[in-house]
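Protein modeling request. Please complete all fields; requests missing the sequence field cannot be processed.
Requester role: graduate student
Desired output: 3D structure, token encoding
Chains: 1
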Amino acid sequence: MEKKLGRNDPCWCGSGKKYKICHESQDEKMARLESQGYLVPPRKLLKTPEQIEGMKKSSEINVKVLDYVQEHIKAGITTEEIDQWVYQITTEAGGIPAPLNYDGFPKSVCTSINNEVCHGIPSKNVALQDGDIINVDVSTIYHGYFSDSSRMFCIGNVSPEKRKLVDVVKECVELGLEQVKPWGFLGDIGAVICEHARENGYSVVEEIGGHGIGLEFHEDPWVGYVTEKGTGMVLVPGMVFTIEPMINAGTNEIYEDEENGWTIYTEDDSMSAQWEIMVLVTETGYEVLAW
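Delivered output (291 residues):
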């Protein structure tokens, strides 16, 4: 049960301000919406100023790692080398790679190439080839705060078809981001992403989506990308989640690698791409914390 605060009590967010001049009006608006049947986030999903600062510091490491990968990735590099980069840079900055040993995942980063949708496991036996597209998905823990983002990289002479897929998925993320507005709906994000992907002849993976993040690796809400406008959880300032659609050039049907229990592939061997950003809902719009 969330404690009932008096108007002159210190606000629950730890700002040091009185409740009546900090979160009282927001809490009242959430209560009204909930009484009208809307899905509103519980208070535990709304990050405090202190928590947001911790997540920003974690995100700085996450972005630094991906910037390094972007500068050094090329044909001939093994995915094991990428894993070593991620581990070294993260730990030198005082962080911990969040994927390492997460539910038994054996590496510090996910590297998903071509027809791999997500959760590709780095290997010394997998070297990047000219023409590959690869998603490098980095997640960081810093002083207990989590961050998460991924980027696509085109290796050498990539075909126009592959490059278009990579570009369109980035556009999908940007369009989704434009829908992050206080008191909007989570479904608005997925609706525009799905529309743009399908307009370009692509399909959207339905089983895997984005997620809340901050105090844990994966929190509520789950963020899907085949949704309708005006549906889903109300976007309230203080919410933090990822936007990370997985878009396939062919069917949206996928399957899991039976041997490693992690890597997800397209059912028809078509190409897949994904970009991921981590977003904070603010009182005026949004702030991208990791990209």
